[in-house]
Amino acid sequence: MRKMLYATGLGAMAVFAVGAASANDELHKMSQNPKDWVMPTGDYTNQRYSKLNQINASNVGKLQVAWTFSTGVLRGHEGGPLIIGNMMYVHTPFPNKVYAIDLSKDNQIVWKYEPKQDPNVIPVMCCDTVNRGVAYGDGKIFLHQADTTLVALDAKTGKVEWSVKNGDPSKGSTGTSAPMVIKDKVLIGISGGEFGVQAHMSAYDIKTGKLVWRGFSEGPDDQILVDDKTTELGKPVGKDSSLKTWQGDQWKIGGGATWGWISYDPELNLVYYGSGNPSTWNPKQRPGDNKWSMTIWARNPDTGVAKWVYQMTPHDEWDYDGVNEMILSDQSIDGKARKLLTHFDRNGLGYTLDRATGELLVADKYDPKVNWTSGVDMNKSSPTYGRPKVLDAASTDKAGEDHNVKGICPAALGSKDEQPAAYSPDTQLFYVPTNHVCMDYEPFKVSYTAGQPYVGATLS
């Protein structure tokens, strides 16, 4: 049964027509047109599936370049353009230009937005000056700039409608992720896990840019937005669930960045995303599970309150950033309809959960060479249910500071990095870009200084 959830039909997207009125009606309707690509993820399911069939196995070998466009920025480009009718919206890495191109008029540039940003943000960006895309909604294009400014641009003219600061680059926060428009809000995460930020997911009013709610990855209950009904694996997380797993005030520099993709189920009215590695990379300096880094979150988009959470890699010892996308699909299992969430994590394990309840259905290695764990305890009556069994030979914590642990698989790059997977309801298969890379990992003591790297490990 556990293997079957990955290999058999997880259903099409028809269920998302139900309850569509509770989502952004405009976006939901537009996402049904396969000629358009109106969200960074294609649609709310994160399946990244296209019904277009003009290019197929018989003619793909005849493809030739039709035209090219240079953005003028020679850094890493991540995320694809939006296609809305005849308009294509293209984004770039820092300085985060946005081009509006009319595909019906010989690819004419209709407008260009180029923000003025302090170049001092560049050295604060962990892993190149990338940006993962723009979002559309309410006649606006939304961009999260490197300096954490969330800006709303008129889709027709490029005029700035509003802008708001989402973080503080002087303390290590940066913007690399794509916004997601859900109902009357724009959701956006934050980068900065290697600089000891207290990371968060934030929701802004689509009309005004006013902050509606902000849920942190670690901290007091009123900051992480959990209540007495929030569960992990069917049990209440309890009061101070995060604070109890950090030493002293370490949660204030705890990381758990949220720079990955966001998905949404309109019927359940829940958004899903992952939080990343805890700060620092030296596990000796942060004893405990370090909740809620490395966690799958299910939040109510109206209030931000978490319905359920699941921490995949408690007390992460390897920088297995947990931000990869959550793919939503539906399947009948043993005669019971299930609303599923599937996630291929950097840690080398693939997970399937019931996205309504957070019940863990699958946790299996998708690269058999993964050697930091022997697997996840799937016995529901066990006190360690849902936790991975860490193998001593790969534990950087047990080895201690200034000891080089060799041959850990996967490397911090992960068995899958942020490059998104896809799911096809036609073949009922996932298509996952994977890595097979291992590493040597040597932790060392590091002190925290706001705005300076807070890593504490050497990797090769």
Q: In a few lines, what is going on in this structure?
A:
The chain has 460 residues and is mainly beta. Helices cover 4% and strands 29% of the residues. It is globular and about 60 Å long.
Largest sheet: 4 strands, antiparallel
Q: What is the β-strand count? A: 29
Radius of gyration computed on alpha carbons:
21 Å
Helical segment count: 4
Q: CATH architecture, please?
A: 8 Propeller
Question: Helical amount among residues, as a percent range?
Answer: under 10%
Q: What is the CATH T-level topology?
A: Methanol Dehydrogenase, Chain A
Mean pLDDT: 93
Distance between the termini: 38 Å
Strand content: 25-35%
Instruction: Enumerate the spans where pLDDT stays under 50 for 5 or more consecutive residues.
Output: 1-23
**Name of the level-1 CATH class:** Mainly Beta
Q: So, the CATH homologous superfamily?
A: Quinoprotein alcohol dehydrogenase-like superfamily
Shape designation:
globular
Q: Decide which structural class fits the backbone.
A: mainly beta
Strand order of the largest sheet: 1-2-3-4
How many independent structural domains? 1
